[in-house]
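Entry 14. Structure prediction run on the chain below.
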Amino acid sequence: MIYYFSATGNSKYVAERLGKALNEDVCSIENIPDEIEFKDDEVVGLVAPTNWLGASLLAREFLKNTKFKMGNNNYLFYVATCGLLPGASGEDARRLLAAQNIKLDASYSINMVENFTPIFSVNYKRCISKTLERAETKIDKIIGQVKARKQGNHTCIRLPYFMRSLMSVLLSYEQKTKRFRVDQDKCIGCSLCALRCPVKAITMATPKDRSRSSYPTWTKEKCAICLGCLHRCPKNAINYGMSAGHGQYLNPNTKV
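Output returned:
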C-alpha cells in the first residue's frame, strides 16, 4: 500500500507512479482508519510534502497517531516531496515510527514544483515543466531502489534534526489562519475550500448583503498550512501572506 498526503497533486502523482510500478494500491491518509494491519511481505510507503525542513503536519499526525500492525518481512519507506530541501523529513518519519517500535527501512526525496506562494512564484511555466521532467527520472530511480528493498536515508542534502526543531517555531507562526484573506468580489461561494480542507478549519459565512455569495472564513486559529484552499480556488480569490500575484499550481499529471 502506498499512502500519501497531497494538497496540489505533487505527492499524489508520485504515490500513483510508485503504486503502479510496485503493483500496490494507493490511498490518501485523509481517508483511513485509526488502525492498519499489513500483510506479510507487503511494501508500504508514505509520500508527503516537506513543511519547514520536516515532514508535513498531516504526515506527522498519521505516523504518530495511527496504530500499525506489522506483518512479517514488511518493507517501509518514506518519500518527501520538496521544492528546495527535504531537510530532516526522513529523520522525522524514522523517529515517529520508532516511537511505536517500528523500523523505517528507507527514506527518499524528490524535488517537485515549489508551491509555497507567499514566498515563491509559480508563474514560470517553463521552469515548472523542467522540474516535473527531472522528477520523472528521480521517481524511476526510487522505484528501482524500493524494488531492491534498499535500506537507509537517501534524501538529498540532509540537515541535522535540531534544525527541524528550530524551524518548528516558524512553522507554528505560519499556521495561523489570520494570515488568509478572501477577495469577496472574486469568490463565487463554491465551498470547495471548506469541503477539501484536511483539518476542517474553514466554514462558509453568509454576507450581510444577501445578494452576494457566501465566502470562506477560517474558524480555527491554526491549520495544516497545506495551501490547498489557495491553489484549488477556481477564481484565485484566496491569498495568504504575500501570495498575491504569485499564481496557483496544481500538478498537471493527476486529478486533485
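The chain has a mean pLDDT of 94.
Filed with the rest of this week's runs.
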